[in-house]
Design a protein that fits this description.
Length: 787
């Protein structure tokens, strides 16, 4: 999404679009200011964070000289100067220069008006001060406005607009725009900009507001400007990018409070700004959702109906919910039924329909929803709650654990926490609430009524406190058994003690990355940096922050700086890891080996040394030094680095000992609490039937892993079952638009002669990764055959 947004920003055709998309990028990068600062320190600047020079982008087409023809008068009546009187003061001006300011003044001073014969003209009733008129007179001669105060500029702007003095108005517009430096300035000047149709000033004010998102939406004055802008005002403020602007504003407002009045106002402006059917259906649906949240049911119904009529099928779910609220349960069921029967059904459709039936029918619909989209949380939660209600504790926990095995959803952790409370298993409940607080420190439970931190305090009263030594033993056991949630919980508990926090936050970030929680992992890394005990430790964490945000070279430099200060395990490990990942040169393997050996010579705990030995074994395997690799993996296993079984299995396989490799992976499966990846790896070391069984197990444990779908599809394709092969890939693509799945399905479509299907998948895949070379080649080949 960010890449597409950045591309939109780069390809923006107007300054208004560039401003909106740049602000949207900045908003999406909230909390990443540290990364920008680190890159600036590395002499690498992110240009989307910088303000735009609005005036240089908005060039006006004004014919400056002789724009208004001088109308010659008869005889000797042409007067060189004219005196304008404002009350008691007189200002002498060059008649022809002043006449050139606008058509009205040209007609007044040189045309057939009475003033053309006057040497003295009264302008007292035109809301211009003597000081203002003197500046206008000077401008008529010099064409510039220098040293003019903001109040006088505003006075002159109004005068220029009234008398159609386009050059003067443009100069005021730009001069005022250059003075907009704060939100206060922008709020004060935006009204003048809109009233006087001053686009440079209006866009400059808008830029200030957008750069302060989301904070500026807590300022009612700013909200009022955006909420009350009509079509003409929006044109002045944001040109043709009105829909994009209100898309951004409505998203920010919904994230702050989807039920708020400002959210409604922004979505109403979004609807007014819509130019196409696609834009309109999006606006109708979003506004319908907000009206539904606010319990404004009649308005919501009209909006959902409009969205459905515009072709938005998902809005039928909104109509069904409204029907149910109004007591039309059967109607709501039939509404979803009609959708399921008219299109290729998706998981959410069955989930929605389940809300309007009971008993076995609901259970069946939720089973179907999970089969079509295993990432939906509600079906697991409903089944687990139903089983718990029937006192089937073991089955209830197994059901909620199914989804927690591959998706760390807060609502599912909360439900399991409630189960453990009911069972009075306070240790397990504590584990889950600590995991919740790690992921979301401000999380509130029971539909937002109780802070998770408060429940954490209450549960702690039922648990014996662990010493730091106890915590390290618990962490070692759970890390070794690949119990990532349990490990998170222990680290959370350790952070409440006086233990060094930098290293603990760093360990926390590693676990969160393994659990596919990158945002929480980055937050933990930043906390590790904040709590680093020394400069060399801080540099290591900065290096990881840069590496994890795809700035590998800068991350390497941080590692080198840290090593220069002090030789440490983490600095050498970071340098080895980044170098191995970034360099395609096989000659760098010896350098990586040397760095990992240096790391192992430095003090560290067995958890990290086990990881270093495992990484060293992988490098040796890549170099073909299998005996050295086996030694590394064996040494890692001696200090209980359980994942080393996988590396050792690979060594056995490369030595043509497939049976031993299979047995090695079986050991890992038995030890690891999260073992979907182990089943997937073991499938490489057995015959086809056992492979199929292992990969079916992988899909049960973690349906988001794509290799099993690809393998099964390839087997079907080899058996000339093309339709079944494509269906297997489509099953996964329905809930995970993975590049490899799309690539394989595109190739299958090409093979079967379905050029349009292949082209669709190529385009979808290139939306995910526009630089994938194999995908580009396939797209080029398919495109040449498009009918």
């Amino acid at each position: 999404m960010r890449r597409s947004l950045r591309k939109a920003w780069q390809k923006a055709s107007t300054v208004h679009e560039k401003l909106v998309f740049g602000a949207w990028l900045k908003y999406e990068k909230q909390g990443e200011e540290l990364i920008a600062d680190l890159l600036i320190n590395c002499d690498k600047c992110l240009q989307e964070f910088g303000p735009i020079d609005i005036a240089s982008h908005l060039q006006t087409d004004i014919n400056v000289a002789g724009s208004h023809e001088t109308v010659s008068m008869s005889g000797d009546q042409v007067l060189r100067n004219v005196v304008f009187r404002i009350h008691e003061e007189k200002i002498e001006c060059d008649r022809q220069k002043f006449a050139a300011l606008s058509a009205p003044f040209s007609a007044m001073l040189n045309g057939s008006f009475m003033e053309s014969l006057c040497e003295d003209i009264d302008l007292s009733e035109n809301n211009i001060s003597p000081s203002g008129l003197r500046i206008i007179s000077d401008f008529s001669v010099t064409g510039s406005l220098n040293g003019v105060t903001p109040n006088l500029l505003l006075e002159i702007l109004i005068f220029a607009n009234k008398f159609c003095c386009e050059r003067l108005k443009d100069a005021c517009d730009r001069k005022l725009a250059s003075l907009v430096a704060s939100r206060e300035d922008a709020v004060e000047l935006m009204g003048y900009a809109i009233e006087e149709n001053s686009p440079v000033l209006a866009v400059s004010c808008l830029q200030v507001f957008l750069r302060e998102l989301p904070d500026c939406l807590n300022d009612e004055r700013v909200v009022e400007i955006f909420s009350h802008a009509n079509r003409q005002h929006r044109s002045i403020m944001v040109g043709l990018a009105s829909f994009s602007l209100y898309c951004l504003l409505s998203e920010v407002a919904m994230n702050l409070d989807p039920r708020s009045d400002k959210t409604v106002c922004f979505l109403e402006r979004l609807l007014e700004s819509a130019e196409t059917d696609r834009q309109r259906l999006l606006a109708f649906h979003q506004l319908g959702c907000v009206r539904l949240l606010r319990k404004e049911y009649d308005e919501a119904e009209h909006l959902f109906e409009a969205a459905v009529n515009a072709g938005h099928i998902y809005s039928i779910a909104g109509l069904a919910r409204l029907g149910y609220i109004k007591g039309h349960k059967l109607w709501a069921y039939e509404k979803l039924n009609s959708v399921i029967s008219s299109v290729t059904p998706l998981g959410w459709m069955y989930q929605e329909r389940s809300l309007y039936c009971e008993g076995d029918k609901r259970w069946e619909d939720l089973e179907k929803a999970t089969a079509l989209d295993p990432t939906l949380s509600y079906p697991y939660m409903y089944r687990a709650s139903s089983l718990m209600t029937k006192q089937n504790v073991e089955a209830a926990l197994a059901e909620i654990n199914r989804i927690l095995g591959f998706k760390l959803a807060l609502e599912c952790l909360e439900l399991r926490f409630c189960f453990f409370l009911a069972l009075e298993d306070y240790q397990a409940a504590l584990c889950d609430v600590q995991a919740i607080l790690t992921l979301s420190p401000d999380y509130r439970m029971f539909e937002g009524r109780v802070a998770a931190s408060q429940l954490h305090m209450l549960v702690r009263e039922h648990i014996d406190n662990w010493t730091i030594a106890d915590c390290w033993l618990q962490l070692y056991d759970r890390w070794s058994s690949v119990d990532d949630i349990g490990s998170l919980s222990v680290i959370y508990q350790m952070l409440e003690s006086d233990a060094p926090k930098g290293v603990l936050y760093f360990r926390q970030s590693l676990l969160l990355l393994r659990l596919n929680c990158p945002e929480a992992a980055m937050r933990s890394l930043q906390l590790a940096r904040q709590h680093a005990a020394s400069d060399h430790e801080r540099l290591v964490y900065e290096g990881w922050i840069l590496y994890d945000t795809s700035h590998c070279e800068e991350g390497l430099r941080k590692a080198e700086e840290s090593i220069q200060m002090k030789r440490s395990f983490e600095a050498f490990f970071l340098k080895a890891y980044a170098l191995a990942d970034s360099s395609q040169d096989s000659s760098c393997s010896s350098t990586v080996v040397s760095l990992l050996e240096d790391a192992l010579k430095c003090p560290s705990d067995r958890l990290r040394k086990g990881q270093a030995l495992n990484n060293l074994g992988s490098v040796y395997v890549d170099c073909g030094q299998l005996d050295l690799a086996a030694d590394c993996y064996s040494n890692a296993l001696k200090i209980r680095h359980t994942r080393a079984h996988q590396g050792l299995a690979r060594v056995h396989f490369l030595k043509n000992n497939k049976t031993t490799a299979y047995e090695e992976m079986t050991k890992l499966i038995k030890k690891a609490r999260n073992n979907a990846s182990a089943y997937e790896k073991r499938s490489e070391y057995c015959d086809r039937e056992l492979t199929r069984a292992d990969l079916e197990m992988v899909t049960q444990l973690d349906p988001l892993r794509v290799y099993p779908y690809r393998y099964r599809a390839a087997v079907l394709m080899d058996s000339h079952k093309e339709n079944e092969a494509i269906a297997e890939l489509s099953r996964a693509i329905a809930f995970k638009a993975d590049l490899h799945l799309l690539h394989l399905r595109a190739a299958f479509h090409e093979h079967t002669g379905d050029v349009l299907g292949a082209l669709r998948d190529c385009r979808a895949a290139l939306s995910v990764d526009p630089n994938d070379q194999e995908m580009l080649e396939l797209h080029s080949r398919v495109y040449s055959h498009e009918p």
